[in-house]
Amino acid sequence: MNNNLVGDEVGKLFVGGLDWSTTQETLRNYFSQYGEVVDCVIMKDKTTNQSRGFGFVKFKDPNCVRTVLETKPHNLDGRNIDPKPCTPRGMQPEKSRTKEGWKGSKADSNKSKKIFVGGIPHNCGEPELRDYFNRFGVVTEVVMIYDAEKQRPRGGSKEGRTS
Prior knowledge:
By secondary structure, the protein is of the alpha+beta class. It is 19% helix and 38% strand. The strands form 3 sheets. Strands 2-3-1-5-4 form a 5-stranded antiparallel sheet. Strands 8-10-9 form a 3-stranded antiparallel sheet, covered by helices on one side. It has 2 domains: 3-90, 2-Layer Sandwich (Alpha-Beta Plaits); 96-161, RRM (RNA recognition motif) domain (Alpha-Beta Plaits). The termini are far apart.
């Protein structure tokens, strides 16, 4: 394993749930309240140059990550954003495929109860998704992902659930 790769992840946050209009400047300004930001990037689609709705923030002091994670909720540009610590690829838990699907470590199962659903037809909305997934458990939130230009669903959704 490359030690430089591990070092690059220290003090770095993945930030999901960004609004399409969020800029690197507004992202940097928001997280600067927790410490000195040395790097900040919003990931963009290579073809359209549109935001992909997530980015990364790196702090000079790695302890700032803990402060950010202990402070919730985080709201930027009218959206609840979801900062998470970056884990070096070599340090991530191994995942295995079982008959029930992909599984990580037991600790992973308690971290998030959100799922991503892709390939949703454009004529399918939040009520239809909620009705479908309610047969598996209580759906607490449905977030449709919209194409910023066309103002129609992009065919993906994040589902929140309780057990």
